[in-house]
Amino acid sequence: xxxxxxxxxxxxxxxxxxxxxxxxxxxxxxxxxxxxxxxxxxxxxxxxxxxxxxxxxxxxxxxxxxxxxxxxxxxxxxxxxxxxxxxxxxxxxxxxxxxxxxxxxxxxxxxxxxxxxxxxxxxxxxxxxxxxxxxxxxxxxxxxxxxxxxxxxxxxxxxxxxxxxxxxxxxxxxxxxxxxxxxxxxxxxxxxxxxxxxxxxxxxxxxxxxxxxxxxxxxxxxxxxxxxxxxxxxxxxxxxxxxxxx
Amino acid sequence: xxxxxxxxxxxxxxxxxxxxxxxxxxxxxxxxxxxxxxxxxxxxxxxxxxxxxxxxxxxxxxxxxxxxxxxxxxxxxxxxxxxxxxxxxxxxxxxxxxxxxxxxxxxxxxxxxxxxxxxxxxxxxxxxxxxxxxxxxxxxxxxxxxxxxxxxxxxxxxxxxxxxxxxxxxxxxxxxxxxxxxxxxxxxxxxxxxxxxxxxxxxxxxxxxxxxxxxxxxxxxxxxxxxxxxxxxxxxxxxxxxxxxx
Amino acid sequence: xxxxxxxxxxxxxxxxxxxxxxxxxxxxxxxxxxxxxxxxxxxxxxxxxxxxxxxxxxxxxxxxxxxxxxxxxxxxxxxxxxxxxxxxxxxxxxxxxxxxxxxxxxxxxxxxxxxxxxxxxxxxxxxxxxxxxxxxxxxxxxxxxxxxxxxxxxxxxxxxxxxxxxxxxxxxxxxxxxxxxxxxxxxxxxxxxxxxxxxxxxxxxxxxxxxxxxxxxxxxxxxxxxxxxxxxxxxxxxxxxxxxxx
Amino acid sequence: xxxxxxxxxxxxxxxxxxxxxxxxxxxxxxxxxxxxxxxxxxxxxxxxxxxxxxxxxxxxxxxxxxxxxxxxxxxxxxxxxxxxxxxxxxxxxxxxxxxxxxxxxxxxxxxxxxxxxxxxxxxxxxxxxxxxxxxxxxxxxxxxxxxxxxxxxxxxxxxxxxxxxxxxxxxxxxxxxxxxxxxxxxxxxxxxxxxxxxxxxxxxxxxxxxxxxxxxxxxxxxxxxxxxxxxxxxxxxxxxxxxxxx
Amino acid sequence: xxxxxxxxxxxxxxxxxxxxxxxxxxxxxxxxxxxxxxxxxxxxxxxxxxxxxxxxxxxxxxxxxxxxxxxxxxxxxxxxxxxxxxxxxxxxxxxxxxxxxxxxxxxxxxxxxxxxxxxxxxxxxxxxxxxxxxxxxxxxxxxxxxxxxxxxxxxxxxxxxxxxxxxxxxxxxxxxxxxxxxxxxxxxxxxxxxxxxxxxxxxxxxxxxxxxxxxxxxxxxxxxxxxxxxxxxxxxxxxxxxxxxx
Lengths: 246, 246, 246, 246, 246
Known about the structure:
Five copies of one chain form a homopentamer.
Chain A: E1 16-24, H1 34-45, E2 50-56, E3 63-69, H2 72-82, E4 91-93, E5 99-103, H3 115-125, E6 135-143, E7 145-146, E8 149-150, H4 156-171, E9 177-183, E10 192-198, H5 201-211, H6 215-220, E11 221-223, E12 227-232, H7 234-241
Antiparallel strand pairs in A: 1-3, 1-4, 1-5, 2-3, 2-12, 5-9, 6-10, 6-11, 6-12, 7-8, 9-10
């Protein structure tokens, strides 16, 4: 079935993002990956669409995919079409690691009409051509609503001040860590998805650990499952994950 | 077995609602969907019954169904009969995403005998002909009972005042979001099921996120698993979900 | 193996109760149910033993059984023997919905030697001939032990007063709702099992929801998984659940 | 492979204990149990080693085994060797109900050099020849560390006083209930495993329920999954659980 | 596929660590382990790389592996390559017991330029030639962030003082217990992984239990799943776990 059959589902602002995770079914016999590779190549040939592929460290999963683009229906179609290829006979879906989100500009970013803010907003809403760092880490996040530690009970100004300090701390990792934060409230069980791209595995630990002492995380942060993998072009990621092409 | 064998199980007020979710078993070989399509068409041919079908985004599930009608036994019969068709050989049930509920008019809505309130009550108790927006989101909800944040310890008047403000905020999304809230206490592990119908994926995020700052959600809301899918007529939803007809 | 081989395991006071739940394995091919039906008929032919069968609404399970009688070993034997019949080749056990309990008279019921209290105690300890209402709902329950809300830290007189009010509210549903509360502490992960028998699905929602505002539930109640099904004589319940006899 | 190959793993004080649980895979065809029975008999023929076997009530599991003896490697070897017999083709392991622990004398028991305390310590550290009561119940336990209810923040003298009262209440059940408490901290996710042996099912409910009002449990007790079964000699327990010998 | 294809993923400081756990699939037929043994031998033949293998006690898993070395990609390649050998046809991965971490020197260890501190830092960052004690225990850990018990809200000096006392208590177990603590924040759902190597099973209970009374654990410690196993050279560990070589 051609994927163009799906009517679009485009956010009125921002792009869609799907984080997908798969385990490889035993026995690990060779499988034809050509059809899947062609689907990914075609997808990436369309404007503003990208796939980040990674082989997952540990036993949590084997293969991870981050799909990004303006139309959630198009991302869904790629996901569905991949599952109709021979490759899918070796894959087991890991729904507990799957997340649906959309890109957003921070609500705490004041739009002063400057080109700087416009560029910042654009880079957050339309994260084109994400670079292939050696590792990718993603995890979902929510703000705590428990007794005296209720983020959603804070006045906007307090939240803005706290988030400003949080962001400033995060920016000290610029260069070492490329960070993408997307909105998941209502789309997943969590409120945001954080994706980190790094070359140094220690940088993942450093940024997540050091920011945990910031009040936004220390007092108000709730974190879900962390997935870490080795990024590579799709065909290479399949091999690094253990999928031997036939 | 003809489904008419089941004695009715009709709520004395309101209709029954079943939210069902399925994954597609690998390999995704073509399957005959004709019998399932005929069952759904027959069901919808009876008065006051409707099926909303959607292909689920992400890996949480593949196909979702919302069944609504006056008789829970009739909804159950459709569910059971679908599982006896060839289509069911490709489906895996996802019980953790399944919810049983019944429609209700809000207890905080004062019945002043006016036609306006009568119409409002009727639209909540008998939600006929729900429109096919591009996306459907559903999730279960409960009110918190924890320490100082115990909804069930609040006087009725306080709850009424809080819910009035909550509803007023919700109404600012009228047009962008069509919302159906059904009662699940005693029928599911949660107390209510929220179903949202939208054309803009961002509208799901906006309404759930913005309402989270309202005291009813911020302090008293507990939320379960969120499922989001692309709505389509049943035969098309099967294809969009990845079920290729033979 | 004849079930009479099992030495008895009779509570010194009260009867045993098993709540069992099963899903039906795909594909739903016809299966011989005759042997299972004969086992249930023989069980019910012995004194003081009863089976309530129901097809479960939603995807949580397909078939539910409530086994009740004076000897836990006899209930266990029926369960085991059912699993040795051809019917069992279509059933998947759902241990997360299974509960072991025994009947009990309330500890807060003062025995004043009157025939009224004696009859009440007898009806709770020996619930003979439970009626077949259209629906059955069961769920496990525990009393909270958290910070200031610790039921087990309350003096007996306070608990007695609270439970008296709780029971009085429950009795306003007499007629609409038949309720059986059995003791599960030490036998299951929860402390009690509540079984409701009703003809009106809305009555389940009404009684559980309205009692949640009573302090016993609002402040001290913890609730587990709710299972709701359509009650029918055993052979009919099998058909309503989707088990087509061969 | 002969089990004597395993180097010993003996606690410097106390014995090892394994609680194991299994479900029976469908279909329940006859299976040869002779090899498994021989392994258990050989194990019990060695000094200070015992197997308690029971068929589990409800759907949580079907067969339970309690292995006890001085050397954890020897217990492990029996477990491993049982899984290499034909019986194991009918068994599914239930890891969520499995516990590893070692016997211990209470740290609150003052060693005054008396023969009474020496005998008490010996009976706790070396529980030889546990009797076959009709029922066995086991569950894991931890002490709470939450806000104001933090057992591990209490001075030793307070804990000793509380545990003395707790033990005195427990001793009122002597005769009706035989109780074995073993240490699991670091060996399992919980801190202790409680094993109860009784003839009257109601005695399980009575002792666990009544002790829950004692401050040690009411305020500081956390409890895991409860497993209850019918005890019998190993070959009979296999039959009671539904394993028909070929 | 040769494992050298994977580009390196070396932390800028410290080594990578993978904790892996497997169950053995029934039936336990003989399997060729030669290829897996050759892979492990080759891995250990490269500098600074080690595999600790153990058969797991209880039913939580059957075989455990701890992989350590400077390059996470190399550890991943061994994991992946093992799953392509015949041995893997008998193994089922247990992702819930898998952890990714990196070695670290304690942040509370002041670097005074002395050879003593340099040696201590080196032994923590580069734990070469871990000894084969009879038992290995591992578990993940996080620091609590709940209400008044929020580790991440404490000043550095308070944390340093608390950790100093905690470490001093831990050092009283030197000799009986060899302890490795690795950093998991951002790499796993937990913040640290603790690995204990002992000859006496009671030493595991003693160290974890006694340290639980220290304020760092009592008030701020959160603990995940504990896995305990019998350590042996890889080929012997396979046999002790129940994998019979063909």
